[in-house]
């Protein structure tokens, strides 16, 4: 049974039998930051919002403040409070936490009440708003691959104890972590049965949490699965002594973890606007015969903007360990019809139905913040529509090996430092579509990541 629609008028009634509410917003790394409040407190702030310390935009994922003072949260402004406003449309009950009510929040400036530029939900809303002015909507889906490691039985004493599992993970090298399943076996029907309670538990919990999985299967790699919800998997994994790893490249010599994003645009009546009603008899390339003019301009925007938005797709040092040649990861500005080696995979007739016409952006890894990744796709794609850009490169040849560099399109950044410099440079496409405030802030957080890496002494 689905949860009812929540409004200011009925929220007290819906929470009548509850005594607490969980609230959370997203930081730039896509991590949920929140708190548990009493129902009384929640009802008092549900309309106008409440103060939430801005430091979540002033520190990294390990709660270390950025070395560079950034405008949103810093010592000079005293790490001031932001205004956090609950989104009533996001209402869920958390099935693995006794059905406690849960709401997402968005962050706003307490003085101007303008959206905080670095708020992932706000950035995505801003990007989508440009489409909505024309009566269009964006449709999107995310595919996440992730490794799963299980602590040895002795590490948690035959009990589902997340604290002892965490201790084992902390005190042992990555190479010592045993995968949930051994060997390479994508799309296995039998392997999930060995962890049946966990495997079906994830699927059922996602349905109850109204974050349904369309597919949930093994991928090629030891303990690698593919699904769509990081929050649910991380929350339930600890109960079974299982640690899901959403790093882009957890282990050398094996494929990395992708976070492919599927996007299309539809009209207010639900018509797919990337699909062409009748095939074009003389398209620029045969692969584009069934793609509408709007879709072609959107593709041109994606390809033209791709090099400048890489930090939003590949935000960590580790991200670029995945983006290397010959590991089923795209490394160039490239596209192709049903081409899984290309950065942008066009899905359209004649190999699929017209209503399923869409782009699969294959560059993001599983470590990407999905709100930022989708905002970037929509923003640069729509820039192509507004400017009526032409597709800058021909399609990737079918015979080219997966991930091979091509003279058809530029090589994407090889590391976070180079990607961040392109992202932050004057006149970048990122600055054009997102504005200086966001680029300076998020770019500053990536410079922090690069600096920590440069100062680290590793086992290499």
Describe what you observe in this structure.
With 460 residues, the protein is α+β, with helices and mostly antiparallel strands. It has three domains: 10-116, Roll (Ubiquitin-like (UB roll)), CATH 3.10.20.70; 129-136 and 266-455, Glutamine synthetase/guanido kinase, catalytic domain (Creatine Kinase, Chain A, domain 2, 2-Layer Sandwich); 143-245, no CATH class. Helices cover 28% and strands 17% of the residues. Strand 1 and strand 2 form a beta hairpin. The termini are far apart. It comes from Rasamsonia emersonii (strain ATCC 16479 / CBS 393.64 / IMI 116815). Residues 120-460 form the GS catalytic domain. Belongs to the glutamine synthetase family.
What is the secondary structure topology, with strand pairs?
Blueprint: H1 11-14, E1 20-26, E2 32-38, H2 39-45, E3 50-53, E4 81-86, E5 92-94, E6 100-108, H3 120-132, E7 137-150, H4 162-171, H5 196-208, E8 217-218, E9 224-227, H6 230-237, E10 242-245, E11 259-266, H7 293-305, H8 310-313, H9 319-322, E12 335-337, E13 344-347, E14 358-361, H10 370-387, H11 416-424, H12 429-434, H13 436-455
Parallel strand pairs: 1-6, 12-13
Antiparallel strand pairs: 1-2, 3-4, 4-6, 5-6, 7-9, 7-10, 7-11, 8-9, 11-14, 13-14
């Amino acid at each position: 049974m689905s949860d009812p629609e929540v409004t200011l008028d009925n929220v007290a009634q819906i929470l009548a039998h509850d005594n607490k509410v969980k609230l959370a917003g997203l930081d730039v790394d896509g991590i949920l930051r929140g708190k548990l409040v009493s129902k009384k407190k929640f009802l008092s702030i549900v309309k106008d919002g409440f103060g939430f310390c801005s430091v979540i935009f002033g520190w990294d994922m390990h709660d270390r403040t950025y070395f560079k003072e950034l405008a949103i949260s810093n010592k000079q402004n005293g790490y001031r409070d932001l205004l956090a406003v609950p989104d009533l449309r996001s209402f869920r009950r958390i099935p693995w936490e006794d059905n406690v009510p849960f709401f997402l929040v968005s962050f706003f400036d307490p003085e101007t009440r303008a959206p905080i530029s670095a708020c992932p939900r706000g950035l995505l809303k801003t990007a989508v708003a440009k489409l909505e002015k024309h009566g269009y909507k964006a449709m999107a889906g995310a595919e996440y691959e992730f490794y799963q490691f299980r602590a040895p039985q002795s590490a948690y004493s035959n009990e589902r104890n997340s604290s002892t599992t965490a201790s084992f993970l902390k005190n042992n090298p990555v190479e010592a972590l045993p995968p949930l399943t051994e060997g390479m076996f994508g799309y296995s029907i039998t392997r999930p049965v060995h962890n049946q309670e966990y495997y079906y538990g994830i699927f059922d919990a996602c349905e109850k949490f109204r974050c349904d999985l369309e597919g949930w299967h093994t991928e090629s790699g030891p303990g690698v699965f593919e699904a769509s919800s990081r929050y649910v998997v991380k929350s339930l994994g600890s109960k079974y002594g299982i640690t899901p790893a959403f790093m882009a490249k957890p282990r050398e010599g094996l494929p990395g973890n992708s976070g492919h994003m599927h996007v299309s645009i539809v009209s207010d009546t639900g018509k797919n606007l990337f699909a062409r009603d009748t095939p074009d008899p003389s398209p620029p390339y045969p692969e584009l015969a069934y793609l509408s003019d709007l879709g072609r301009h959107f593709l041109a925007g994606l390809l033209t903007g791709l090099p400048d938005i890489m930090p939003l797709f590949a935000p960590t040092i580790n991200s670029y360990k995945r983006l290397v040649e010959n590991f089923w990861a795209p490394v160039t500005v490239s596209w192709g019809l049903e081409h899984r080696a290309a950065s942008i995979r066009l899905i359209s007739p004649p190999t699929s139905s017209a209503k399923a016409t869409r782009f699969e952006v294959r560059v993001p890894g599983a470590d990407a913040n999905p709100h930022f990744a989708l905002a970037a796709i929509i923003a640069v794609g729509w820039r192509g529509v507004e400017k009526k850009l032409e597709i800058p490169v021909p399609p990737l040849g079918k015979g080219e090996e997966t991930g091979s560099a091509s003279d058809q399109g530029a090589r994407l950044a090889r590391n976070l430092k180079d990607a961040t410099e392109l992202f932050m440079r004057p006149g970048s496409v990122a600055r054009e579509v997102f504005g200086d405030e966001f680029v300076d802030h998020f770019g500053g957080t990536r410079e922090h990541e690069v600096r920590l890496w440069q100062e680290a002494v590793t086992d290499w």
